[in-house]
Specification:
heterodimer, A: 450 residues, PmbA/TldD fold, 2 domains, seven-stranded antiparallel β-sheet, five-stranded mixed barrel, globular, B: 476 residues, 23 strands
Chain lengths: 450, 476
Amino acid sequence: MSQNHLPELAQDVVARALAGGASDAECTIAEGDEFTANVRMREIEQLKEAGSRAAGLRILIGKNTGASYTSDLSREGIEQLVKAAIELADITTEDPHAGLPEEGEFGSLTGDLGLYSADVEALETPFKIDLAKRAEAAAFSADPRITNSEGASFDNHVGRHIFANSRGFSGEYRSSYCSLSTVPVARDGESMERDYWYTMARGFGGLESPEDVGRTAAGRALRRLNAVKANTQKAPVVFEPRTARTLLESIFEAVHGMSVYRHESFLAGKLGEKVASDDLTLVDDGTIPGLFGTSPFDDEGVASRRTVVIDHGVLKSYLLNTYAARKLGMKTTGNASRGLTGNAGIGHGNFYVEKGVQTAEQIIAAIPNGFYVTELLGFGVNVVTGDYSRGAAGLWIRNGELAFAVSEVTIAGNLKDMLLGLETIGSDLEFRGSVAAPTLKIGEMTVGGK
Amino acid sequence: MQFSESIFATRFNISRLDLENYLAEALAQGGDYADLYFEYLLTSSISIDESMVKSAAQGVSMGVGVRVIAGERTGYAYSDDLSPEKIRKAARVAAHIAAGPSKVDRFDLNEGARHNLYPVLTAPTETAFSERVELVKRADRAARGFDQRVFQVQATYADNLRHVLVATSEGVLTLDRQPLARLSVSALAREDGGIPQRGHAGGGGRVELDYFLKEKTPEHFAREAAREAVTMLDAVDAPAGEMTVVLGPGWPGILLHEAVGHGLEADFNRKGVSAFSGRMGQKVASELCTVIDDGTLSSRRGSLNVDDEGHATQRNVLIENGVLRGYLQDKLSSTLLGSESTGSGRRESYAHIPMPRMTNTFMLAGESQPEDIIRSVPKGLYCVNFGGGQVDITSGNFVFSASESYLIEDGKLTRPVRNATLIGNGPEALKYVSMVGNDLRLDEGIGVCGKEGQSVPVGVGIPTLKIDRMTVGGTA
């Protein structure tokens, strides 16, 4: 991607907003090139390639805000962008907590954060198609019961993020990623199941081999075959890393500063209290080089950082942007996040559970009767109350071994009890995205089945 | 509307000849078919929180997607710059995939058939913000005024106006102007510092702003959200295990969307990866069930005059008296399967490749009185409001999450119960439908359907339904 005038454009938009009557302004510009190759049944199915860019503006007139975005970066489009944001300040309410971060809070991490790898742009299309074909082929050759496929994809993206505000902050960073995934379908008589596996990295060098991706995906689909419905019962539940990370997504919603000040979280008002098992330490770290949740600064121009959210079971910090921090009488944790426009929301950096010592095998071996969850369905998590009820599939544990496949069941409980009842944390932490957890065992949940 | 009057002609100076040239460029290296999807989208949203209008935003998004199909291959490229050189570049990129012997030579573009389902003169997006902001303020007041236990209210009003132009190498030229508006309200209630409970309601459609002033007012949605929050304060733990489930009319129709709708999308069936693959003509539901997907309902959220491939939408029978009758087809799947498009090709935006999607999915009314249905259940669950749902189309397992439901004991509704997920298997679940109410209702216009990363607005509906066996994911 070539250098161009976008950082100057962002500063120009801010200047135009001030000239148009704004007392403060923030401009975000995102630019990106995407490529996707899908193959299915060993043939190319789709190729998609495009570049795009767009700008967003948020302004304040005193304590009233307005926001706008556009993908029309022509002179006319930019004029309209500025006019649109300013016009909206008329209909918003004066909000004493609105505004940019405090002086002294702006900043950016220096040094190479490993967010961009030039090798992603150097890959030739036929090579990328071949990687996808190899992943799918590896799934097919893993077992004769892999009879069908939803295909395999290679994706890559190169982007540039630019941010400028009226307090003199101006920053930009490039990022890249590539990923390879495949979705085999396994069949045995009447039973048909699919599953997927993927690898993702900032640069091509970080990807796992297509053969490993295909074999893992095949193994996952195969072990789901001939599943039965379990009996309704209380039982220990083990979340493998792929499902364990979804628990973290719910906990993120609960420590999200906006949810907290609105009392929309079961963790609101619990700072300093024991909310989880002593073994649980939960961290948000936007500074780890090369990972997907890393950035030099957040979407308000505050430097990214490491925040311990839960330390050995005790709730230590919420994740905050400037607004939520002011509402709660705290300081921003550098977690502001937004799309192109609007007031900043809150996002996480690399949000993960510190690993324990036991392997998944050791955890399973200690369970006489329990459920190893490999797939979750639906959105049945209420962060206000902590009520948790989701569709699940996986393997039943009998006498310390994975005995048979289970599907069409639910697992239910309350996140409060689940956190406190977290009995074992596995040693198998790895980052396949910005949220990561090792295997987690919860002492007891309700399995809904027959 | 005539092409010459459209924004693409007037503002971006695109002519019919240009469109033909871009299509020719897309097919220059071969291919069976090409299409262009131009989009000019205006959006706005206004939110209130803590009785303050904290955010208001408006935006413009525009671009063109160029698609070339050659056999089973699709090449796709898009540009958010509508200058001729950028469109031609996208056409050339899309053309790469289709290099081959087949040739299409002529494209005489003619304006194709379309409905006029949303004759909205002034789209809400085109009205003054000072009028629209009143909707969230009124919602906030009404929700707070409903009950003193309501202590937090958020309301968001969002609308958009999408201008689209589809031109295909088969000569179709279609224009549409698609307004869409939605008001949603979320309320939290709390009793004496206890655990808060949330209620949610919302709706809208392809309507004028007047709809929110005369038909479904902010007060209507606000009271509904507040009522649900307050009701849930008395909720007991949901039961766990298999039991009889009665679904109330309207939005609980999300059952159909997850249990059968996705599994009947033709792409999955063409590939043989759906639990419904190869079951055409087979019994997949009780004979009381007739399920329709209809994109032609007036003013509804899921309706479209033409789909995103320029094909007029239609009423499609998916299941008739329990027997599987049809799939939802787009251009690619229908061509490969040797059938016709059912007007179901949809995409999120110009940056996305179309695929078969639902529009408004519902079950026809039966003959039972809703009261009789509840009275017939000795022990079970009555569910009237839901959060989202999801399906694994290959195994057929689906879930949907009840946000407001009640225990049925001896034919009477007794206690409200806490949130619970319901789970079933698509080709099996509807076989247990034993009573169908005479009270078909469509939802109020709030649904968003996600598939392979693309979101589109949809509608659902059912009459009151009794399902003799379904697994409920509670804790009690």
